Amino acid sequence: MDFSFITDPFFYVVAVPAVLLTGISKAGFGGAVGGLAVPLLSLSVPVPQALAIMLPLLCAMDILGLIAFRRTYDARILKLAIPAGIVGIALGALLFRVVDARWIQALIGIEAVIFALNFMLSKPPPKPDGPVPISPIKARFWPAMSGFTSFISHAGSPPMLQFMLPLGLEPRTFVGTMNWFFACINYAKWIPYALLGLIDLRNAGTSAMLLPVIPVGFLLGYFVLRKINAEWFRRIATWGLLTTGLKLCWDAFI
Question: To the nearest whole number, what is the mean pLDDT of the chain?
């Protein structure tokens, strides 16, 4: 058995900022730029290995998220979104060896760019007086897409953001709901990832080397979330979605 870890310095040059950015994004903006981690890691290691290295790190961040947002989430959304997300994971597991991840990234990237630009150009939605109505169809379709793309490339945030941003949720509720959703999604990936041979001790050892970065990024993001107002949160999350969409398109076509 191989208990070693990656020793290439260039890997850590790209991995440390990737994990730091993911932690800030998950705690501060609901994962708006979290989809950049695997593309960044893929500069140094193959995509399947990047997926395997990131999974334990995402799960560790999810534990912090469940603690920080243990009472702050929208249960209406989660009741519909989590089962749909699990269906998306099952589809991703079935098609993982068949589908070219670049074309999935291209599709999600194009959708994210179009949605973000449209959202930027439109007027902010009026502040609702009560709970925002949730479309049962959208609350199942986008989370299912998120589960699928999360399994294929850990890029589940763009589909969920396309569903969540128009709801006008208060920032902490928004981030808490996203954290609860992705905690369920990420922990559900372990068995299919293991069955596909993506989990091994060398990748796990590499994940362990990056664990100290997680609380730094998460605490920075959580601090920003507590200071930011709803309008700036909306702007930054939308810009994060646009950035992620452009990066996914770049990786797919360039």
Answer: 86
